Amino acid sequence: MMRFMRLLRYEFWPFWVFYFPTYFYWGLLAFFSRRTTYFTTANPMMNNGGAVNVPKSSYLFQLPKEWIPETYLLEKQGGELLELPPITLKKFPMILKPDSGERGKGVIFVRSRNHLDECFQAVPDGRYLLQAYCDYPQETGILFCKFPSQPRGKILSITTKAFCEVTGDGKQTWGQLMAQQLRVAHRLVFLKQEWAADWNRLSEPNKTVLVEPIGSHNRGTKFMDGRDQISTALTTTINHWADQLPGFYFGRFDIKFQSWEELAQGKAFKIIEINGVNAEPTHIYDPRYSIFQAYKDIFSHMKIIYEISRENLQLGIQPKPLVPFLIELIQAARR
């Protein structure tokens, strides 16, 4: 029944299924541009414009340190970690994630130093970011664009997030309660391992537990349309952030923060990561949204990327050739 219910809602469809109609629109835009990879010019500061294989460290470390969680860049080669910085027990929990990754894939909530060692034994060779876990109560994704010919940019989309939680009733086990959650039904095998100590334990009445601390849609977080939070003050703050990244014209800031009032003032926040042209207007996954509204918004944002790319092409910025781009795309898909 859970599987059938998820099939009825496009927000749970596989990425390639939901985005299938957009491939035809991309073909049309590529025809008008006369360049199949025109979008790779949208963000000159990012590899492939931020479409694929983009090292997060390449832009995060350009931001002021106080804007991001304490972050370490680590590398594993030949099955061995090259160097692990001094990390005290006070810094846990932490977040471990691939330096080049997307949609929450490979992101691990690390509970302790021993758990960190176990994680590094399990993950494949590659570059990773180890970030201090930010405990601000709210998380959002803010999609931003700026045309190269214009001095200021604008906010296109704001997504508010509700993390998956369950509340005990004193009658069912924690495992039974989690199994009833539509948003994590596809992850029960993982959750049963993660919650092994409490899975069969009777839940405590009125006690609420956080099922998944990672704010990704495909890991159970509910996305909602938050565009009513757009304001002049918040737009000014986001423009100030973008100014720190020359060559950044389209993308989404993923942020944890204390309150909307403080965020608009540029206070009490941490930028977790930034996505480029692969950034979705994630407000489209609001359960109240229709699939027709979703496609309308996606096509609108694809057109903006095309127009930004066209301006950069006129400025002499060249797109990534198709064959090297496809090689990187295939390599990323195999990770």
Helix content: 25-40%
Low-confidence stretches: none
**Strand content range:** 15-25%
Summed up, the helix count is 11
Structural class category: alpha+beta
Helix and strand element order: HHHHEEEEHEEEEHHEEHEHEHH
Brief account:
This protein is 31% helix and 20% strand. It is α+β, with helices and mostly antiparallel strands and 335 residues long.
List the helices and strands and how they pair.
Elements: H1 2-7, H2 15-18, H3 20-33, H4 57-60, E1 71-77, E2 80-81, E3 94-98, E4 108-110, H5 113-122, E5 126-132, E6 138-145, E7 154-162, E8 165-167, H6 174-179, H7 188-194, E9 208-210, E10 222-225, H8 232-243, E11 250-257, H9 260-264, E12 269-275, H10 291-314, H11 322-334
What does this structure look like?
The protein has 335 residues and is α+β, with helices and mostly antiparallel strands. It contains eleven helices and twelve strands. It folds into three domains: 6-69 and 134-163 and 219-310 and 321-334, no CATH class; 70-126; 167-211, no CATH class. A five-stranded antiparallel beta sheet has the order 2-1-5-3-4, covered by helices on one side. Strands 10-7-6-11-12 form a five-stranded antiparallel beta sheet. A hairpin with an 8-residue loop joins strand 6 (138-145) and strand 7 (154-162).
